[in-house]
Amino acid sequence: GKISEAFIGMELAIDSEDMGDLIAEIANIFAGEVAANIEKVGFRGQSSLPTATRGSDLTLFMPNKPPTVKMKFEGEIGQFWLIMALSKSR
Question: 0.85 cut: is pTM over it?
């Protein structure tokens, strides 16, 4: 799709394993940026490995029901959602 063209310069099939790898890597980039910015405002942050899913109306079951934030991003190549869950370290 268009997102693969923007990031790697070639089109990948939306249902390919390579597209899944690309989306997971993009999620990892976002998570790293969020962790870096959280530390700038005085919190210690650490991210777990991101989970990438495909489909509609998905529900992820997480232990301890941490607070979540759902963010929608739109651009020239379309839209995507990022759901971030926050929890305290034990």
Answer: no
Burial 34-69 (b: 16+ CB within 10 A, else e): eeeeeeeeeeebeeeebeeeeeeeeeeeeeeeeeee
Tokens 């959602």, residue located: 81
Burial environment of residue 13 by CB neighbours within 10 A (0 to 12, 13 to 18, 19 or more) = exposed
Q: Residue 28 CB: number of other CB atoms within 10 A? A: 14
Encode pLDDT of 20-63 as tens digits: 888 888 888 887 787 777 777 776 666 667 777 777 777 777 67
